[in-house]
Amino acid sequence: MNAFSHRTWIPFYLASFGTLSMAVFRSMNGVMLLFSLVLVSVALGIIFLAIQTEVARNTEKKELMATLSKKVLSAGESKGSETK
Fold it and tell me: SS3 for 4?
Protein backbone atom coordinates (compact mmCIF):
# COMPACT_ATOMS: atom_id res chain seq x y z
CA MET A 1 0.00 0.00 0.00
CA ASN A 2 1.24 3.46 -0.81
CA ALA A 3 1.91 5.86 2.00
CA PHE A 4 -0.73 8.41 1.02
CA SER A 5 0.31 11.12 3.42
CA HIS A 6 1.89 11.74 6.77
CA ARG A 7 -1.40 12.77 8.33
CA THR A 8 -2.39 9.09 8.49
CA TRP A 9 0.86 7.45 9.48
CA ILE A 10 2.02 9.80 12.24
CA PRO A 11 -1.13 9.36 14.36
CA PHE A 12 -1.06 5.65 13.55
CA TYR A 13 2.37 5.16 15.07
CA LEU A 14 1.75 7.50 18.00
CA ALA A 15 -1.54 5.83 18.90
CA SER A 16 -0.08 2.35 18.50
CA PHE A 17 2.96 3.10 20.63
CA GLY A 18 0.98 4.80 23.37
CA THR A 19 -1.70 2.14 23.51
CA LEU A 20 0.67 -0.79 23.47
CA SER A 21 2.92 0.82 26.10
CA MET A 22 -0.04 1.39 28.38
CA ALA A 23 -1.40 -2.11 27.80
CA VAL A 24 1.97 -3.76 28.47
CA PHE A 25 2.46 -1.74 31.64
CA ARG A 26 -0.97 -2.66 32.99
CA SER A 27 -0.71 -6.33 32.07
CA MET A 28 2.80 -6.64 33.57
CA ASN A 29 1.43 -5.36 36.85
CA GLY A 30 -1.36 -7.91 36.63
CA VAL A 31 -3.97 -5.19 36.93
CA MET A 32 -6.83 -4.58 34.56
CA LEU A 33 -5.96 -7.09 31.87
CA LEU A 34 -9.44 -6.69 30.43
CA PHE A 35 -8.98 -2.91 30.33
CA SER A 36 -5.72 -3.38 28.40
CA LEU A 37 -7.42 -5.58 25.82
CA VAL A 38 -10.29 -3.12 25.39
CA LEU A 39 -7.82 -0.25 25.04
CA VAL A 40 -5.90 -2.05 22.31
CA SER A 41 -9.14 -2.98 20.51
CA VAL A 42 -10.42 0.60 20.57
CA ALA A 43 -7.10 1.98 19.34
CA LEU A 44 -6.96 -0.53 16.49
CA GLY A 45 -10.54 0.34 15.51
CA ILE A 46 -9.77 4.06 15.40
CA ILE A 47 -6.61 3.45 13.41
CA PHE A 48 -8.52 1.22 10.98
CA LEU A 49 -11.12 3.95 10.43
CA ALA A 50 -8.41 6.56 9.87
CA ILE A 51 -6.69 4.43 7.25
CA GLN A 52 -9.99 3.55 5.59
CA THR A 53 -10.85 7.27 5.37
CA GLU A 54 -7.47 8.03 3.83
CA VAL A 55 -7.89 5.28 1.24
CA ALA A 56 -11.36 6.64 0.36
CA ARG A 57 -9.94 10.16 -0.05
CA ASN A 58 -7.20 8.86 -2.30
CA THR A 59 -9.71 6.93 -4.43
CA GLU A 60 -11.92 10.03 -4.78
CA LYS A 61 -8.91 12.10 -5.77
CA LYS A 62 -7.91 9.59 -8.46
CA GLU A 63 -11.46 9.51 -9.85
CA LEU A 64 -11.60 13.31 -9.92
CA MET A 65 -8.27 13.52 -11.71
CA ALA A 66 -9.41 10.96 -14.29
CA THR A 67 -12.66 12.88 -14.88
CA LEU A 68 -10.85 16.20 -15.22
CA SER A 69 -8.30 14.67 -17.58
CA LYS A 70 -11.07 13.33 -19.81
CA LYS A 71 -12.79 16.74 -19.86
CA VAL A 72 -9.58 18.56 -20.71
CA LEU A 73 -8.73 16.08 -23.47
CA SER A 74 -12.24 16.24 -24.95
CA ALA A 75 -12.21 20.06 -24.80
CA GLY A 76 -8.84 20.12 -26.55
CA GLU A 77 -10.09 17.78 -29.30
CA SER A 78 -13.22 19.87 -29.90
CA LYS A 79 -11.18 23.08 -30.18
CA GLY A 80 -8.82 21.37 -32.59
CA SER A 81 -11.66 20.24 -34.85
CA GLU A 82 -13.26 23.73 -34.86
CA THR A 83 -10.12 25.43 -36.14
CA LYS A 84 -9.74 23.11 -39.15
Answer: coil
Domain ranges within the chain, ordered by starting residue? 6-83
Cβ atoms < 10 Å from Cβ of 16: 14
As to burial, measured by CB atoms within 10 angstroms (0-12 exposed, 13-18 middle, 19+ buried), residue 27 is middle
C-alpha distances (whole Å) from 60 to each of 11, 46, 54, 57 are 22, 21, 10, 5
Residue-wise pLDDT tens digits, 23-39: 777 777 666 777 777 77
Q: What is the pTM of this model?
A: 0.56
Q: Are the beta carbons of 5 and 54 closer than 8 angstroms?
A: yes
More confident residue, 5 or 45: 45
